[in-house]
Write a structure and sequence with these properties.
- Helix content is about 80%, strand content about 0%.
- It is mostly helical.
- The protein folds into two domains: about 1-60, Topoisomerase I, Chain A, domain 4; about 65-105, no CATH class.
- The longest helix has 19 residues, at about 20-40.
- It starts with a helix and ends with a helix.
- This is DNA topoisomerase IB.
- It comes from Bradyrhizobium algeriense.
Length: about 110
């Protein structure tokens, strides 16, 4: 499971790809990053530690959308249990840095 999560994080940090060759290079780089972290070879990491559906989903261009959708669903249910002021603070602290930095310049 850790390999799959690490691969999802590595792939989500990459820019979108324009063609299959770029997507394969991105996958190779992400798998190398994960294998270094887990202390295994890229081949073993890909075959044994990263779920193949994650790699297929990335190649289809759907991985980031699927992860984002699942995370949003989990966050929605978690936020429902918070008080309004807790939910507001949670929203501010989990907003991406780009949005925070951009908003700071508009004051």
């Amino acid at each position: 499971m850790a390999g799959t999560v690490l691969a999802a994080l590595a792939l989500s940090e990459l820019e979108s790809f324009d063609n299959a060759a770029q997507a394969k290079r991105n996958l190779r780089g992400a798998i190398e990053k994960v294998s270094a972290r887990l202390g295994n070879t890229p081949t073993i990491c890909r075959k044994c530690y990263i779920h193949p559906e994650e790699l297929n989903s990335y190649m289809d261009g759907n991985l980031v959308l699927e992860i984002k959708s699942q995370a949003e669903n989990e966050l929605r249910s978690a936020v429902q249990n918070l008080k309004p002021e807790e939910a507001a603070v949670f929203g501010v602290t989990t907003r991406p840095a780009r949005q925070r930095d951009g908003a700071a310049g508009k004051r």
